Amino acid sequence: MPIVIRLESWQDPLWMLFASKIRYLLFFIALWNPNATDYTTIGWPQIDRVASHAEHGAAFAIITRFRTNIMVLGVDAAREPFPNWQAWIKNEDVYNVFNAFQRGELKARLEGHAQAVDSVARKWMDEHEITLRGLRGDAEKIAMHVLMSAAFRMEYDFDTGVEIVDPGHEISFGEAMHTCINSSSIMLAPVPFAYETQRFFSAIPMHPKYTGDRNQILKLNSVDTNVPPKKFVSINYNAIHFSPQSGAPMSTNLVQADGSSASLAKSISQRLMGRSLWAGRLDREHVPVRGSVR
Which branch of life, at top level (predicted)? Predict the structure, then answer.
């Protein structure tokens, strides 16, 4: 198994305090490559994605003076250390709490989303310049339209509809939603969002499997590999998601690994559906803005 050796570690308090200064010094004397994967940060899999596995293979070990952590690309390989790996994935009942698109609504949601894309594309065609900041703002507005439509059955024209003040109201529905979303996101969103994102899609050291006092078996390329006692094993969900060798998105790999996990595929498919609509609609119907958006 390939080995990556690091003298420093995110588990070292002194390194975490002085890492930036040390890296700057090493870079100044040409001993540190800022483009190389920095395994000393707790969230390195988010940035690395599948690069380390492309270089080292299906599994490799990161050895520090604190702990050895074995990174594994694939759920099937780690069946023995993770007999209850499904527990890392929320069950379908929890996912359904956030599922605003009930049965029979898919066609209507697709049509509504396509209309919203058409509206924002027409707005872009009237502008002399499309900026990244403008794209972000319009994407946020699209998200608000989807939320209003799915949760409150309120639909407005993309550009100006949310500014309409309905009879008996002092502010527009769009302004009210914008205020509520901003306030709640500032207070509540960062912590659970960061935690859940890491929990589902990162092989961060928060969720490694400790091998205890006995060996564990990893099945790598159909060969059993012994992992010594008192080591950590992490399934690198980032690498699974971005791996070109898998031939399928992460949802497909996980469902193939365990048929009871279809809820994860459902959740991810819903998120990807919007992106596909944006890309396909703009590519086919709105050629003048296609290059700028890319």
Answer: Eukaryota
Predicted confidence (pLDDT) per residue in 18-55, tens digit: 877 887 888 888 777 777 787 877 677 877 878 888 88
C-alpha of 229 from chain center: 32
Q: Any idea where the domains of the chain sit in the sequence?
A: 3-92+199-262, 98-194+270-293
Q: What angle do CA 24, 30, 36 make, to 5 degrees?
A: 75
Instruction: Report whether 58 contacts 73 (CB < 8 A).
Output: yes
Q: How far apart are CA 77 and CA 67, in angstroms?
A: 21
In angstroms, rounded to a whole number, what is the distance separating the alpha carbons of residues 138 and 120? 7
Q: Is 5 helix (H, G, I), strand (E, B) or coil?
A: strand
Using one digit for the tens of pLDDT, what is the confidence trace for 193-229? 555 555 444 444 345 676 777 787 887 777 888 888 8
Q: Which one, of 251, 267, 271, lies nearest residue 259 by Cα?
A: 251
Give pairs for 12-16: CB < 8 Å, separation 24+: 12/66, 15/40
Contact between 12 and 42 under an 8 Å Cβ cutoff? The reply is no
Q: Residue 5 has which token pair?
A: 């050796």
Beta carbons within 8 Å of 113's beta carbon, 6+ residues apart: 146, 274, 277
The β-bridge partners of 5 are 63
Assess contact for 51 and 37: CB atoms under 8 A. yes
